[in-house]
TrEMBL record:
Keywords: Endoplasmic reticulum, Heme, Iron, Membrane, Metal-binding, Microsome, Monooxygenase, Oxidoreductase. It comes from the Eukaryota. GO terms for biological process: hormone biosynthetic process; progesterone metabolic process. Its cofactor is heme. It is found in: Endoplasmic reticulum membrane; Microsome membrane. Belongs to the cytochrome P450 family. GO terms for cellular component: endoplasmic reticulum membrane. SUPFAM superfamilies: Cytochrome P450 (SSF48264). It comes from Phasianus colchicus. Coiled coil: none annotated. The lineage of its organism: Eukaryota, Metazoa, Chordata, Craniata, Vertebrata. Its main location: endoplasmic reticulum. This is Cytochrome P450 family 1 subfamily B member 1. Heme binds at C458.
């Protein structure tokens, strides 16, 4: 249950107008005594257990370079719900599906806030949906954003075809760049071209245009995702220990870099907003998401105009970061598990053939590829901990008292690696998501936690999954992936809002050995097919 403590005046009995000062004076101590007893009863409710916090820094030193793993270890000692202190901030960490679902779904509004972190105010011009506080205005803007994202991606057959056209064009450019870069048996790091390919799909949906892979300005803009994630990921010292910014330190440098990249990113999107505002004719059909948001704001004045570029900044920034990180993990799993790669290639050749590219309609007929995607999301847990939440009221979870304005860390990794839910969770095995007939087990896929749940569930989840399927199936259809045998096979990563793999083994991309037609021929056929 939830409670909010009533103000003192609400505990005072109603007094008639004729009541004298003596009766009022006698009543106030009684009310104070009642309130003190109520507070004592609430105080008897247990606070969550947790490790001893040190002065000034709290438990910051205990989180290490992989806080999600530290949280899981601490949960084995203190339980699924435990408390920490990071600097001056009280923190409660939630582990496991039961505790997380109880908080984010059953008590969604109570856990839907965001902490008043200084870094959060820098995102999207200070009007971010993703990082902003929970309010009636926030709910209004979120509903509008959710409807617009769906309308311009997966909401109708026409928009799904448009999304596919954008993605096919980027897939063609991506495959050509990867194969060309591997000419003569060379191995390469695909990170940069993946970021640009994914960002271009979102740029087309949001702004109606794409950028060249050689566009230095665009690459600098979208190539700073790691800096962003390090600053706002759970356990970041930028917010936990802000006093370190007073001295020359890595924390001060990180905060300033974060401030600058947010200024540049928001400035880029706001420039697009101003261009669209000038060129969108009254009554004209929206050309892209930016147009759709502007038109919606004109029709619904309660939606604030300055939230339009902020919301599009959120959508464009979050989607390209998440998707490019996911695709890099997928490539790592393809080279690490060549038998899995071969099975995926066999399935796509059998179902799709060689005269066209995979399309969204193929998804139900490619269960092994879908199983690979879900296992990749589960195993990597590339969004290990959600953006920090905060409680909006005093509340309880699993018998523990959680005061208002407590910072909440949601450890999604703990759900995806829970041995009570997954057999051998540290083994990479796509077949765990297939039933005895070889079909996708939808009950199990719904247990993978990457996009959060409840009031703050990612509004781009459906769009992200469609893009992941299309990029992966097209890459597997067109390429064979080989790791450099002379490089370190160990998997390593950098922690942040997403965990990004450190690619220690470069990859060679060869055209698929079963290919009968080149990518240009196949692309033309596929574009004609979906037009």
């Amino acid at each position: 249950g939830q409670f909010t403590e009533p103000p003192l005046v609400s505990l005072l009995p109603s007094l008639p107008a004729s009541t004298g000062r003596q009766q009022a004076a006698a009543t106030v101590p009684t009310a104070l005594l009642l309130q003190r007893r109520r507070r004592r009863r609430l105080g008897e409710r247990r606070a969550p257990p947790g490790p001893f916090p040190w002065p000034l820094i709290g438990n910051a030193a205990q989180l290490g370079s992989a806080p999600h793993l530290s949280f899981a270890r601490l949960a084995s000692t203190y339980g699924a719900v435990f408390q920490l202190r990071l600097g001056r901030w009280p923190v409660v960490v939630l582990n496991g599906e039961s505790a997380i679902r109880q908080a984010l779904v059953r008590q969604g509004a109570a856990f839907a806030g965001r902490p008043a972190f200084p870094s959060f105010r820098l995102v999207s011009g200070g009007r971010s949906l993703a990082f902003g506080g929970y309010s009636e205005l926030w709910k209004l803007h979120r509903r509008a954003a959710h409807a617009t994202v769906r309308a311009f991606s997966t909401g109708s057959p026409a928009t799904r075809r448009l999304l596919e056209r954008h993605l096919l064009g980027e897939a063609r450019a991506l495959v050509a760049l990867l194969v060309r870069g591997s000419a003569g048996g060379a191995f390469l790091d695909p990170s940069r071209v993946l970021v640009v390919a994914v960002a271009n799909v979102m740029s087309a949906l949001c702004f109606g245009r794409r950028y060249s892979h050689g566009d230095g300005e665009f690459l600098r803009l979208v190539g700073r995702n790691e800096q962003f994630g390090r600053a706002v990921g759970a356990g970041s010292l930028v917010d936990a220990l802000p006093w370190l910014q007073r001295f020359p330190s890595p924390v001060r440098a990180a905060y300033r870099a974060f401030r600058d990249l947010n200024r540049d990113f928001y400035g880029f999107v706001r420039g697009k907003f101003l261009q669209h505002q000038r060129s969108l004719r009254p009554g004209a059909a929206p050309r892209d998401m930016m147009d759709a948001f502007i038109r919606l704001q004109r029709e619904q004045p309660r939606l604030q105009l300055e939230h339009v570029p902020a919301t599009v900044t959120d959508i464009f920034g979050a989607s390209q970061d998440t998707l490019s990180t996911a695709l890099l993990w997928l490539l790592i799993f393809l080279i690490r598990y060549p038998k899995v790669q071969a099975k995926m290639q066999e399935e796509v050749d059998r179902i799709v053939g060689r005269d066209r590219l995979p399309c969204a309609e193929d998804q139900p007929h490619l269960p092994y590829i879908m199983a690979f995607l879900y296992e990749s999301m589960r195993f990597s847990s590339f969004v290990p901990v959600t953006i920090p939440h905060a409680t909006t009221t005093n509340t309880f979870i699993m018998g523990y008292l959680i005061p208002k304005d407590t910072v909440i860390f949601v450890n999604q990794w703990s759900v995806n690696h829970d041995p009570a839910k997954w057999s051998n969770p540290e083994d990479f095995d796509p077949t765990r998501f297939l039933d005895e007939n070889g079909f996708i087990n939808k009950d199990l896929t719904s247990s993978v936690m990457i996009f959060s749940m409840g009031k703050r569930r990612c509004i781009g989840e459906e769009l992200s999954k469609v893009q992941l399927f299309l990029f992966t199936s097209i890459l597997v259809h067109q390429c064979h992936f080989t790791a450099n045998p002379n490089e370190d096979p160990k998997m390593d990563y950098t922690y942040g809002l997403t965990i990004k793999p450190n690619l220690k083994r470069k990859i060679r991309f060869d055209t698929s050995s079963s290919g009968k037609h080149d990518i240009i021929h196949v692309l033309i056929y596929s574009l004609v097919r979906i037009t």
